[in-house]
Amino acid sequence: MNGRVRSILRAAQPSPRRFAPAVLAGVGTAVSAIALLAASAWLIARAAEQPLVLYLSAAVVAVRAFALGRGVFRYLERLAGHDAALGQLAAVRAGLVRDIVPLSPDGLGRARRGEMLSSLVDDVEELQNLPLRVVQPLAVAVLASLASVVFVAFVSWPAALTLLLCLAVAFALAVGVGWAAGARAERAIAPLRAAVADGVYDLLVSLDVLTAFGGLDAARARARSADERLRRAVVRRGVAQGATSAAVSLLAGLASLLALVVAAPGVADGTLSGPGLAVVVLLPMAVFEVFGPVPLALASWRQVRGAAERIAETVPDRIPEGLPHEEPAPTGAAPALGEGLVLRDVRAHWPARSDADADAGRLVDVSLRVGAGERVLVTGPSGAGKTTLAHVLVRFLDYAGSYTVGGVEARELSGDDLRRTVGLCEQTPYLFDESIRQNLLFARDTATDDDLLAVLERVGLGAWVAERGGLDARVGDRGALVSGGQAQRLALARALLGGFPVLVLDEPTAGVDPAASDALLRDLLGAVRPDQAVVLISHIDVPPDLIDRSVRLESGRLA
Hints:
alpha/beta; ABC transporter transmembrane region fold; Rossmann fold; 2 domains; four-stranded antiparallel beta sheet; 17 helices; 10 strands; 61% helix
């Protein structure tokens, strides 16, 4: 896990070449601010001695130059820093998506949707703070502070040692106080944010079910409780950051007082001028202003590391056991079905199973043949391995044994290529919050409206679409505006547009009224071309005239 976290953090940090201009501009900003105060202090103290104006002109010009330089460098710092950080963040997002694709869908089954959303959005967003709020402020503070100590040493080395000691104590306080007071709250914020997102998501998506079964108040209470815990954690973090900043500010004043104590004797013995004393006494204030972001940078580091750890937990660097590994590159061509699908002694299981349910859904030595145009019913109790078989057929899950498509071992085919031949209609089909047209075009983007209307007529939705106002009618988030049967018909229409030689229908009547299930099955299977093979998975009885033969799975084996 530590190696994965480090790789995520390295990916979030821009290269030194790209990030160096931002750091250098930040140092320019800090040095300009410190030099502005030093020049102003010297100018005011020297002017009090009433020298000729000629002796003050250089200091006047320096004050103007440092004031202008601070603004210019600040603009360049923001411009270069955000350009590098946001550009790197885009690369991190793209890399994360590449890591997720081999895991989807079955390698992500243990992650709740709200937690996944938080990891992919909030935690990835948090990674941009690594260069902007951690690396850059720390680098600028260290370089500017060291430069200031060196400068003060040329004026008064006792004052320089005092400044260095106060900076070291301030850093220790920032680390110690910040860690003791705020680390726990900072670690809790992101998981609590994920809990809030998960609670709100469940509340909105399942609003109808919660209302029907009287669970709405409990769901609201869970979301409200998670939000309250998040608020308390944010307040605790703010208090810790405020206490740390207050301690650093007190040290800034102490540094100036100590500089006055150790440097004042130099004025008495003539080794230090009055303007020089003003510089070494006031300079620590400017240095500690530059040092001020350090406590916040340390707090941001803890949050960034926590975000990287959660991303590492959600998206592992290795594909879990049970998922396809090292697939061939896709060719873009669908393998010929030929002699059909042939499974011989196939064994498969879901990834990341606990010991308690390791056997649930496992396939053990399954042998099955599905020829072109054949309709095979797979039955069995819940947990017998029916959905596991469906996901093996489309290569969402890996397998042991032999599984051939048209005589070619499935391992030798890219999953994308295989799924051009074997299509899956899942138990709960996913419908996008788009129009009916767009939901169908995902299957074949070259289809015309006439093609779409024709396939909708085949699945029994022609009249329904006309009543809804045509192809532009929306289906709602995850099909919220359509019934379960209509969602299954839309999913089948999408599959028919894909032209798969083999269709795997996983529990197509789930969530459909039992009285209407036979009619739905007749419509679904009636819409399939005669030359298309169908693997129908169902735990309920199916009219025998709709299928050619049936097999039964029990405890992962064919009975």
